[in-house]
Amino acid sequence: MEVYLFIEPEYENSPWCNSILQGLRSAFSYKKRSLTPITSLDNLNSAQKGSFLILVGSNPSWIKAALLNKNTKKIHPVILSSQPYRSLPGIYSYVTSDSKGSMNYLLSYFKNNGKNKPALYGVNINSLPNIARKERFLSNSIFETNEEDIFYNNGSVDECFASFEKQVSKYDCVICVNDYAAIHLIKQLERIGKENMLIASYGGSLLSANFYPCLLTVSTCYEEFGKAALSICETLHKNSALQYISVSVKHKIQLPQKNNQEEVYYNIIEPDENTPKENDNFYNDQKMNQLLLIEKMLSKCDATDIKILHMLLKNIQYEQIAIDCYISLNTVKYRVKQMCEKCGCSSKKELLLLITGHHLL
Description:
alpha/beta; Rossmann fold; Arc Repressor Mutant, subunit A; 3 domains
């Protein structure tokens, strides 16, 4: 059984893609199966009929182009990307998240908490998961919603909020399509005195877990996407009577947690042109991409690193951090240096600038 892996270039640096790939590699390694990464569909010229192509991506145009490519005609594609139904051409299998169940959960949560008018915020039209959430939002049976209740991120999260701010008085609750849009929205609402609005988010990122435990989040275990993909390939390989298989991965809910920690205020520094930039243009927006950069850094940190970061943001000196974390002064300095390198920052000051410049805290 030959299985090839093709990843959308703009998607491959995202945290979600990394989780999918981790699940794929783990599953194929456990089953002692071979998985062949390719960088071009031209690499499939020598593929045997009955082979499988796992497509990992988010942009519907990219996935559609891959499905229609002449080199994929003789093999079976397995798409790992959220979509509400079979909306793409050809015969293929796919793994998706439970967009209907998760949307109904969030809207029911709003309803049970006395809310009357929801908005959907930060939608990226070049993302299949965002499109799926939009369609579920519009087709729900809990609230009356329409296109006017949807706010798009067309390459600028600031412009997205500017559009929402004009109608903010209409809404008492918001579903954000990802944690990064939610974090930006929370800080902007605080700026205009609307911080009491109930906000939920798709994501479950390390950013929200470490900085916004009070945020209601819906997340997908993307590692399960990879494991499901192998199961699809093995099942279809053994049973030629099956045409395709569709799998829906259950969502996970993180209810808001009351933050009992001491409230601390930070000096907010606006990012400048020297602030490190993310190479991934999935959102085509510098602020969103820098939040993705911070997320990637956090994904490589352990609990001690996170504690050090929180203490640095409270302006605590290295010597006290070493005492509170039960580590040496040199270890503190080394860990800070490692975090800087993970973010592409040249100094502690630049690292804190990257975080505080986004009003995370």
